[in-house]
Input
Amino acid sequence: ACKVMKENKNIKASGKATVYSLFYAQVRRDPDAVALKYQDNVWSYKNLNQYVNQLASVFTECGITKGDRIAILSENRPEYVVAELACAMTGAIIACQNWRLSNDELEHCLSLVDPKVIMVSARFAEKLDYIKTLDSRIINFDQDYDSLMSKSKLDIVPRSIDPEDGLIILYTSGTTGLPKGALISHRAEIARMCALRLDCSITEKDAFVAWSPMFHMAATDQLLCALMSGSTVIIIDGLKLEEIVEAAKHYTLGWLVMLPGS
Output
């Protein structure tokens, strides 16, 4: 009877899992495993979790509460992943902006989500200068980000989050009109992770190359699946075939996403 009760308790707990709780389970399982690789730098699961905690603290100090939107406009880089996981930890929703959009389209996409904070890289910061309706705090990855992180705390307690709560907003292409935001929940991301592991037999020994833009599901969904599975994510800023081949020399690529050219 005790065994049955324990199993039932575990089943109920698994039904309450979130993206951050599954990532943190990997932190506890093997804190020294490589979570991220970017250029010549690597981050262990323990290191990555420390950065996630710091950014979660920054969000809290900015007044971010559960359900608030945080927009991100950036190329592929480790800070992008940290931002997604910090939202998963705090209950915020990250809206991934397409830097290929025109200024009018970008303004439309930002107005849809009304973000309290916009995280931007120096490469795309000028695009925000053309948006007149903007009333959000701006955090530039290449200017004030490091200073904010250095002053933040590491003892943030993850918020209580329902798996049905939203985590990520990705946008439709807008082929027949303006782009529309699609809200993806923690549970949806977990379901995609389970399908990936079932269909491709993915384990913690596999690695994923995140080369496509992180504002697209081909990168964001897959990298979250990898980090919930204990895998390594190799970040590449765009389709750089030599870097992908080099990654394949040193890591076992469990799966690789390729997209047709336009």
The longest strand covers residues 166-171. The mean pLDDT is 91. The chain has nine helices and eleven strands. The two ends are 60 Å apart (CA to CA).
